[in-house]
Structure formats: C-alpha cells, structure tokens
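Treating backbone geometry as a discrete language has practical consequences that deserve illustration. The sequence in question and its structure tokens are set out directly beneath this paragraph.
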Amino acid sequence: MSETFSHRVLPYDGIDDFLAGAVPFLNEGIDAGDRVLAVTGLSTEVRLREALGSGADGVEFVEANGWYAHPSRTLADCLADADRLREQGRRLRVLGEPAWTGRRPLEVLEWQRIEAIVNVAFAETGAALLCPYARTLPPGVVAAARRTHPETLRGSRAVDNPSYVNPWTYSAMCDEEALPDPPAWAARLDIEQPDLFWLRAWVTECARRTPLAEDDLQRLLVAVTEVVTNALRHGAPPIVLRLWTEPGELVCEVRDGGRWTAGSGFGLLPPRADGPGRFGLWAVRLLCSIVQIRTGAGGTTVRLRLALPSVPAMVRA
C-alpha cells in the first residue's frame, strides 16, 4: 500500500458545508475499497446517508459518543485496525467528528492531546482521517484543531495549517499548568519500602469508602502498582501516595522526589504488535479515566482519575 497518511480538519458553518467536504472524502474511500467509517451524531448520519445514496452501503456508521468514550482506548483500537488493514494492502478511512459537548475541561484537553498524538501514532499506517469541527464550537476548541491537524480541507482542496504544532510540543503544552495541591484531608501513605501487598490493601480500604465499582477498584490497584513501581525504580524518595475524591471522581496521586524522563511521552503511544517494549504507563492510561503527569526539578507527580458512578463520599485519612 503506497497511500500517505493524512489527518485533516474540516471546519464547517452548516450541514451543506459539512457535506461538501465529507461526502467526497467518503466516496473516495468507497471507490478505493478502503474500510470507511463515519463517526458522527444521528442527525448528521441521516443527512450523510441521503447524500451518499446507494454508496452509503459502503460506509460503517458509528455513534460518536460511544466512539469517543475514552482517549487511549479509542486510539489503541483505531490504530490496531489501521495496522491490520495496512498488512492486507487496504486503508483505514475515518470521518470522525469529536464529541465535545458536555465534556469537562480535563476531558477536552486529553482529546485535544490525542488529536496531536495521532500524527505520530498513525504516521506509517497510510490511514486517512478527516475531523469535522463546527465553527460554532468554543473558539479554543477550533483553534486547537488547527494546531493538531497538519492540514485543513477547504472544499476539495487540502491546505497546510500554518499554526500546526509538533505533536510532542503540543502534548507538553497540555501539561504546562501546575497541578493544584491535594486537599489537606486527603488520605496519605508514605512509601518507604517496596511492600506492594500492604500498599494495595491500603488503597482498597480507602477506595471502598467511595462508590467506586469493584471492576474499577481492580483497575485502580493495577494502575497504582505500576506507578509506584516506576517511582521506586526511576524516582527518588520521599514517595508519597495520596487518595481523595472530587465531584464525580476518585483521585489517586503518587509523588516522588525524582525527575522522570519522558521517553515516548509517558505512555501516550500504544506499544505496537511488532515492536519492543512493555505496557507500563500506557496500560495505566487505559485503566484510568485521565492520567496527569508532571515532572521537574521538584520531583514527579502522577495523578490517576477514575469516574465515580454517583456523588462521592469524601475519603479522609
């Protein structure tokens, strides 16, 4: 397969503007025998089907809210599909309209980061990705799209985005803001020896004072074990574990006195099936809703967030 990877933003003012860019993109994939996905809302799907006519049979329609449920999982699934198709001599083509409505600021930031990392992760796949952005979205969302997509689609013509930013530079920009201090009442455990049994028992006891589901508790235990192991191997004392709740979330923080090296963006890239490496921080990102990492001369902080199913009970030491 000789196709070049493309990742373009489609700014649009209304449905006609949307269809003018989306329909030729989808038809091109249908004609080429690509696997063609259209990820969007129901009302837009209806208009796309009408515009495509019989060609709609060659498109797999996917509901946007489900597709955009978790940044790292969506990235991993889509990348695995692109790699598999490349091996078959085919191309993955996705019209993906991100679901921005109702997301908290941290979720928006992580999806914007993924839009940037896509340019690294998919570079060798030959996939074609087109991301429609309504001009009615908040200005910051539209501006970020121009920084995370190398090209803009205008009609049938792709033009370079002058404000496009290197993906790793953009990811670092996402982490420029310092994390707020944990609440004074957060539960605290000082880790002085690698006794993971008692660490897991402590996390379990604290987490069970909240509505965290049992499956999510098991995910948290695996994630915390991985992060603490990293702190013991690559960080420096003191190592402190804290756990508390915020509205709708359980937050678990591991802080140590060392400065970690970023490597491949602290687990932002999924390990490839044909490549070396362990899952490490990538697995942590899969297990948690959001992972925040800050490192510098003052030490390293890894903050894990898991969604709670209802109004949380406060966790106190």
Remarks:
- The chain has two domains: 6-174, 187-307.
- The chain has a mean pLDDT of 91.
- The chain is about 40% helix and 25% strand.
